[in-house]
Amino acid sequence: MDAQDRIGLLLDTFTLTKSGHISSPHAVLEVINAFSKEANHNAWGAISKVLKGDGLAPSDSLNRYFQNLPAELYEGFKSFVGSLFSSQLKELGWFHKPGDDDSVKERRGVLISLAGTFLGGDKAIVEE
Q1: Is 106 helix (H, G, I), strand (E, B) or coil?
Q2: Residue 113: which of 83, 82, 72 has the closest Cα?
Q3: What pTM value is reported for the model?
Q4: What is the DSSP letter of 1?
Q5: Residues near 7 by beta carbon (within 8 Å), at least 6 away in sequence
Q6: Are 13 and 28 in contact (CB under 8 A)?
Q7: DSSP-H helix ranges across 19-127
């Protein structure tokens, strides 16, 4: 499946969940889990949109949904999300490197933004 189809699958699953045609947001998390090794910056943009509501009403995000659940569930959600991208962020690093193409730079930016939302309490992230 190419990146465009993967993005479509994610956004369709998210839309079906928001509309009530899929009863649990966990279906969206299962799709997102398949993106853990994703290298396409557009795919990470779509993941960020679903997780944080980028470009949507703030209430239209998985983050907002889980914030309204008991704290232990929200912390589990944040931990799951952080585990999806933290290794990629560690590999890419915080700063541009010579030879980084635009795609890598854009993916790094999305991953740093996700880290700010979901790993804000991580001491190493705060120090960086």
Answers
A1: helix
A2: 82
A3: 0.86
A4: -
A5: 42, 43, 46
A6: yes
A7: 26-33, 41-52, 62-67, 71-92, 102-118, 123-127
Each domain of the chain, given as residue ranges in start order, spans 3-123
Handedness of CA 35, 41, 42, 47 (dihedral sign): positive
Going by C-beta distance under 8 Å and a sequence separation of 6 or more, which residues neighbour residue 48? 54, 110, 113, 114
Contact 25, 65 (CB under 8 A): yes
In the chain, the N- to C-terminal Cα span, in Å, equals: 35
pLDDT digits (tens, 9 = 90+) for 58-106: 678 898 889 989 999 999 999 899 888 888 888 888 888 898 899 999 9
**R_g over Cα of the chain:** 15
Structure tokens at 84: 């999806």
